[in-house]
What we know:
The complex is a heterodimer of chains A (about 450) and B (about 300).
Chain A: H1 2-28, E1 54-58, H2 64-78, E2 82-86, H3 89-102, E3 108-111, H4 116-121, H5 129-133, H6 145-150, E4 152-153, E5 156-157, E6 160-161, E7 163-164, E8 167-172, H7 173-178, H8 190-200, E9 208-210, H9 217-227, H10 245-261, H11 265-271, H12 273-278, E10 282-288, H13 292-296, H14 299-304, E11 305-308, E12 321-323, E13 327-330, H15 337-347, H16 350-358, E14 363-364, H17 383-387, E15 392-394, H18 401-417, H19 422-438
Parallel strand pairs in A: 1-2, 1-3, 9-10, 12-15
Antiparallel strand pairs in A: 3-13, 4-5, 6-13, 7-14, 8-10, 8-11
Helix pairs in contact in A: 9-10, 18-19
Chain B: H1 2-42, E1 45-46, E2 55-56, H2 60-67, H3 69-101, H4 107-119, H5 122-133, H6 139-146, H7 161-187, H8 190-198, H9 203-214, H10 216-231, H11 235-240, H12 254-264, H13 268-298
Antiparallel strand pairs in B: 1-2
Amino acid sequence: MKMKKFAAALMGLSMAVSLTACGGSASSSSESSSETSKAETTQGSSTAATGDTLTVAIWDTNQEPGLTKIINEFTQKTGIKAQIQVTPWDQYWTMLEAGASGGSLPDVFWMHSNEINKYAKYEMLLDLTDRIKSSDKVEMDKFPEDIVNIYNYNGKQYAVPKDIDTIALWYNKKMFDEAGLKYPDESWTWDDFKNACAKLTKPDGSQYGYALSPSNNQDGWYNMVYAMGGEIISEDKKASGFDKEGTIKAIEFIGDIAKKYMPKYETLTDTGATVLFESGKVAMITQGSWMLAELCNNDYVKANADVAVLPKDATTGRRVSIYNGLGWAAAANTKNPDAAWQLIEYLGSKEAQQKQSDLGIVISAYEGTTENWVKAYPSFNLKAYLDMMKDLQIRPYSKSTVVWENMLSEKLVKVWTGESDAKTVCADITKEMNALLAEEE
Amino acid sequence: MKRRERIKFNLKDFLWGWLFLLPTVVGLLILNIIPIFQTIYQSFFKTGAFGKGNIFVGLQNYKKLFSDASIWQALFNTFKYAIIEVPFSIAIALLFAVLLNKKIRGRTVYRTIYFLPMVAAPAAIAMVWRWLYNSEFGLLNHLRNLIGLKSVDWISNPSFAFVSIAIVGIWSVVGYNMVLFLAGLQEIPHDYYEAAEIDGANAFRQFFAITLPCLSPTMFFVTVTRVIGALQVFDVIYMMMDKVNPALYKTQSLVYLFYKYSFVESNKGYGSAIVVLLLAVIMAITAVQVYLQKKWSDA
């Protein structure tokens, strides 16, 4: 009898716990997200907006303190209150989709090139076209055209550009010294990079030249593909670029490095390139400007590492960085469209964009506001990120980017593990990607 | 007169009975039954985002399903997982239950300890195990290195990643099974054991001749619920394996693919078709189990 009571109590308890477990699984799964997702830190978003307060949804905790400052200044000027809610990248889009389906989107939120299409297509976003035209603060021609175009759907503007990001090369100075190598600089080609990888790789497996996962596309192999004259997707976004000579060459190049100078593929998926770099297992990684807060505050990185521009390709002479930029969008059914627009207008103004750079939050999208950004972490050569802006390539996207990006990552595993060669895999990808692109309409 | 009263009384009983059932029935209808039919309905559509712009495509999702090799691999993976998880979690739980049913010192403490994994959130469990399994910094490999063994890629080697995942599954569910078995053991009359002892049966003989047969209703319940649970495995895989993990193809379960298509790539129609397949598989297996149980208890 006593036993039964005990069992019943335990079962009751476990049911209570398993209910709460649903919440738990949502918040900690951010850990499993790949490094391509922009900074992912768990943060509760329990503060619901009340009354006239605007809700502002973002996914990057690193940017929260800085943006709060900017938004507070906005409140002082206009009297409109706004509250930031952070949801980690992996749950952000699930949250937003649920909000859109249920008619409860946040008032103002971040948009990304991967997802804009469906939100614009089903008219979930506030059409900003006319408001931008009549505004004297937001001037769309001061923003990079590519970024403006991402958020333009059938001639209507659905978001105002927020920032841009570029990619640079991080290297471990101590390891370069040990190997007797000169630090990477402007003169480096991808071949120099490969030779350095060879010298930095120790045969006992304690140290490798480079680390890169197939899901590190924007901050990794996409850059090499474009530098070597290839492309991921055609200009009109109708055809895969994996049958291009340059693309195959780049994939072969990475496949070779992966085989010889990278940690075992299994290790890479277990631990991730950035963590391997921060623990002194690899000498170089390529990383986006959005990762500064993570890397620049790491003690090991502070003591041993620095940043340089990406190498260029010897044949084409191009030093390419993939770039992308977020946009500020508002919900079509927001209760307070005018207040939401005022906030977006302010965030897109030169004044707020300048502040965003000065505070070291991100590289602002507004022309001529970026020079102070490099001073945020003076001990690193952050100028490299700005130098990369000379030859930019917008992050490849189409209407269903996520679908073919996942497919690419999965197929390329075979090249990294050496199970199959680059040519075969690229042919396979071309076929499948073209089929996916044909389905898009 | 008397008879009428009885009928009236029964009617009252009947109404009260249904009244008490009502919350459960309503809950089942709203949360389970209706969504099942909606899911089946949705599996015939090419879905647009936000539940808008659905296009009826007939059996196209199912055609794709049957020609998709990754689906069949996932079904196979799901079975591989279940075949390891179910027998081991039951055998270990039974062993613990029998041991902890004896009068030993501090047995409530042991019972609580074995039950603890069930109380912890599955996501938290998966994160801790992920670190234990980590090939570079994980505790397991650290211990292996200490005794001179080579590191193992626990969750990224395609040939045994599913075993590593199943171990986590077994570990989390053993305590729950154990409590069910303990409850079953309480039902067995003590006289049987006394009689057996007088007849000179040893502990093993007693276990196989008394405990096991008398426990068969509990055993049946545990097996059926565990098989269903194992076929629905998702959270451990989702939490522990990266999207580009080389072992993922040979480890991902049907529910994992359902999640991927429905919520990551927002292809809810195809996701629904996958889950309908899973539903059919689980119903078929459970039907076989119920049939076998009936046959066994009739014999």
